[in-house]
Specification:
It is a single chain. This protein is mainly alpha-helical and 301 residues long. The protein folds into two domains: 1-121, Up-down Bundle (Four Helix Bundle (Hemerythrin (Met), subunit A)), CATH 1.20.120; 124-273, no CATH class. The chain is 71% helix and 6% strand. The chain has ten helices and four strands; from the N terminus they run ααααβαααααβαββ. It has helices at residues 7-31, 38-63, 71-93, 98-114, 130-165, 170-174, 178-210, 221-240, 248-270, 280-286, and strands spanning 121-123, 277-279, 287-292, 295-300. The strands form two sheets. It has a two-stranded antiparallel sheet with strand order 1-2. A hairpin with a 2-residue loop joins strand 3 (287-292) and strand 4 (295-300). The protein is flat.
């Protein structure tokens, strides 16, 4: 019986296993630090990230472009940026409590991404250009930043709940102060917003100059949802200028913004909209090779 995974996809499975182990050790290190070593958790996440990056580099070398040739690849690329950003922030700000919240979510998303392996939507040849890099990299980095801001929002609400319940246990002790979490939410949003803006602007120029999405490109569901995402985070940044909009309010709106990010990322494809992708079977149907005595004749289907 043929395996549903290619050899290279098993590399990503190995990364998921390490992410799962890390999730267990990250959470365990909070409640039972004597049994679950934080150093071992760091080993799991760094090794898993290294394997994940090796997987993406291999995909990129095979396709000659960014590792987003399929929905499965796009999902794994997005997840790698979340882990990378989380690791950087963890060691930069000494946030040991960040990855216990991040990694269970990343692990769950990674397992869900595996279900996209058999999805037959693939990137069209027309999209493998400079504009792909100018559009996709800022967009994905912006999404990763917003995802981490969502994690900080969850941490903020958790800390707030611990204070209200006067539950000063291991979880409370592991979390940063509400003031620091509020600042971190702000930093990650302000980092993600200009990246998203750059990605949307380059995507707009690309769509208008190449007609890659047709004349009605602005009605594409992914374009509309991307614009909605931009408006939500623009509103957060604008309201942040007011002294009263911080803490719990920012956390709740940031969580709502993250839901829109996920809908923007995968929702249109689940609704049947392709946004520059096409069924891989359609590509095969465009050309039929017929052997002939004089050589190979290509017949357009």
């Amino acid at each position: 019986m043929a395996s549903m995974f290619s050899p290279i996809q098993y590399v990503f499975i190995a990364a998921i296993v390490l992410y799962l182990l890390d999730s267990i050790w990250e959470v365990g290190s909070i409640f039972n630090p004597n049994r679950f070593s934080k150093r071992l958790a760091d080993y799991f996440i760094l090794t898993g990230l290294a394997i994940h990056c090796a997987f993406l580099i291999t995909l990129s070398s095979q396709s000659g472009t960014l590792p987003i040739s399929t929905l499965f690849e796009s999902s794994t690329f997005y997840l790698s940026l979340i882990v990378l950003l989380s690791v950087i922030l963890k060691f930069l700000y000494r946030l040991q409590s960040l990855t216990p919240f991040v990694m269970p979510i990343v692990t769950g998303f990674s397992i869900a991404a595996v279900t996209l392996v058999k999805n037959d939507l693939a990137l069209t040849a027309d999209l493998k250009t400079f504009w792909l890099f100018a559009h996709i990299i800022p967009i994905f980095l912006g999404y990763a930043s917003f995802t981490v801001s969502f994690i900080f929002s969850i941490m903020y609400l958790t800390m707030e709940r611990q204070l209200k319940k006067k539950s000063f246990g291991p979880l409370f002790e592991s979390l940063p102060s509400l003031e620091n979490l509020d600042a971190l939410m702000w930093k990650t949003i302000t980092m993600g917003f200009p990246l998203l803006t750059i990605g949307l602007i380059s995507g707009t120029v690309w769509a208008k100059t190449t007609n890659i999405l047709g004349l009605d490109w602005y009605l594409d569901p992914k374009v509309l949802l991307g614009s909605l995402t931009w408006l939500i985070y623009a509103a957060i940044l604008h309201l942040r200028l007011g002294a009263s909009f911080h803490g719990t309010r920012v956390a709740v709106v940031t969580i709502a913004g993250f839901v829109i990010v996920i809908l923007t990322f995968i929702g249109p494809f689940l609704m049947g909209h392709k946004h520059g992708y096409e069924k891989s079977s359609a590509t095969l149907e465009q050309e039929i090779i017929i052997p002939d005595e004089a050589g190979m004749i290509k017949v357009e289907s």
